[in-house]
Amino acid sequence: MSMNTSITPRRLLSRSVGAALLLCTATGWPALRAQPANSSSAIPDFSSNKMTWVLINGTAYFRVPGDTGPGPIVDMPGHEYVADYNTRVADTSNPILKPWAKKLMDINNKRVLAGGIPFYPTSRCWPGGVPGLLLYPGEPVFFVQTPKEVWILYQRDAQVRRIYLNVPHSKSPGYSVYGESIGHYENGDTLVIDTIGLDDSGPIDRFRTPHTKQLHVVERYRLNNAGKNIEITFTAEDPGAFTMPWRAKVDFERGRGARSGGPWEESICADGPRDYFADDKSGAVPIPQTDKPDF
Amino acid sequence: MAAVETTKTKYPFVQTPLRGWMPSIVGIMMVMGALLSVPVLTLAQPARTNEIRLAEDVVPAPDGYETVTAKYVTARQTDLYISPFLWAGKVFGVQLKAGQQVEVLAKPKGYDWLLVGKDGAGIGYVPISVLSQAR
């Protein structure tokens, strides 16, 4: 296999982001080092030592320990997910689902059980959205923390999520795949992110749970295990799709995986050479493409 | 007595000469307002929402429907979807050809999609962007 060494715009962007990341982590931000780590007013350091974070424990949300609510959509009993990448069957008896959402998921369950492929955005090179981006498997995630913003960088297509610190939401944020995120720190170990303005372009998990533009997500990124893990819990509410707010969690681990701790690698998805499902009969959503260069 | 004085000071408007008539005037205005609003509310209702029938594997719109009066043709060949967004999944075995006139039953509220029908029943959704208004 030969390696393409030409500098594509995507590769340039990827390297630029990586260089910025290394610069930030190497020099450190004064605000991050000004306070003791255990102080409740301290800023938790998600970004030091050039380390990456990687999702662990699978690609589904888990119930938050102690949560007495309904929790996230999980596997249908008797159809527990094992290894096949694309064959999740949802337990639609979860009371969070409004009737239309349940019907949609029941139809998709039926199709999966009949041998269909339940595509979701990241499986077709589309952005994961919020909170769906939490479920990127095995690909490094970086944090860049500045006094006014936190950037969460994903190796996947060099996607960047921006969180604006200590400001209110815009009056009319509009709608986009990652919406508008504001945040603040709490207790010296937690970054709280509040996101609205999410478009309804994709489901929020690999069970293809739908949502509407009314989705509101509050995430809490908490450093634990002496800084070796981030526990990410979130609350999702969407009166258009859900009957009630619900909570779930995932875990990240520092420096885990073959790529962790290494350089920011170029990640090719949409502009890759193959579409493995181009002739699929299950109704695959097309991979994003454009006919014109857009700089 | 002191309490009455306090009330007068705090709510002087109740001491106007019309005080005794106020409840009646307000009541009449409320009744008139209610009567006047009936036709407006009726017009704002999507007339056919409750009459829409859907094929078995078509999902109701999350927030109901709005009436559509325009006629449409397909601008290009397009699939139908079981709910008004791309990731919901396609309706299998049905595809609209370019230039085909479509029977539009309604518009899902809040979505730039239309519900396409056949013989009066909804058979799937298409983005408005793939349709053109018929002349």
Q: What's the layout of helices and strands?
A:
The complex is a heterodimer of chains A (295) and B (135).
Chain A: H1 9-27, H2 30-33, E1 53-56, H3 99-113, E2 141-145, E3 149-154, E4 159-165, E5 180-186, E6 190-196, E7 216-224, E8 229-237, E9 246-254
Parallel strand pairs in A: 4-5
Antiparallel strand pairs in A: 1-9, 2-3, 3-4, 5-6, 6-7, 7-8, 8-9
Chain B: H1 2-10, H2 22-44, E1 53-54, E2 65-66, E3 72-74, E4 78-81, E5 90-96, E6 101-108, E7 113-118, E8 121-127, E9 131-133
Parallel strand pairs in B: 1-8
Antiparallel strand pairs in B: 2-6, 3-6, 3-9, 4-5, 6-7, 7-8
Word description of this protein:
The complex is a heterodimer of chains A (295) and B (135). With 295 residues, chain A is of the alpha+beta class. Chain A has one domain (9-254). In chain A, 13% of the residues lie in helices and 21% in strands. Chain A has 3 helices and 9 strands; from the N terminus they run H-H-E-H-E-E-E-E-E-E-E-E. In chain A, strand 8 (229-237) and strand 9 form a beta hairpin. The two termini of chain A are 29 Å apart. Residues 1-20 and 34-47 of chain B have low confidence and may be disordered. Chain B has helices spanning 2-10, 22-44; strands at 53-54, 65-66, 72-74, 78-81, 90-96, 101-108, 113-118, 121-127, 131-133. Helix content of chain B is 24%, strand content 31%. The longest helix of chain B has 23 residues, at 22-44. In chain B, the strands form 2 sheets. In chain B, strands 1, 2, 3, 6, 7, 8 and 9 form a 7-stranded mixed sheet that branches. In chain B, strands 4-5 form a two-stranded antiparallel ribbon. In chain B, strand 4 and strand 5 form a beta hairpin. Chain B folds into 2 domains: 2-44, no CATH class; 50-133, SH3 type barrels (Roll). Chain B is an alpha+beta fold and 135 residues long. The chains are: A alpha+beta (295), B alpha+beta (135). The A-B interface holds A 98-101, 103-104, 107-108, 111, 119-121, 200-203, 208, 210, 212-213, 240-241, 283, 285 and B 57, 59-63, 79, 82-83, 85-90, 92, 110-111.
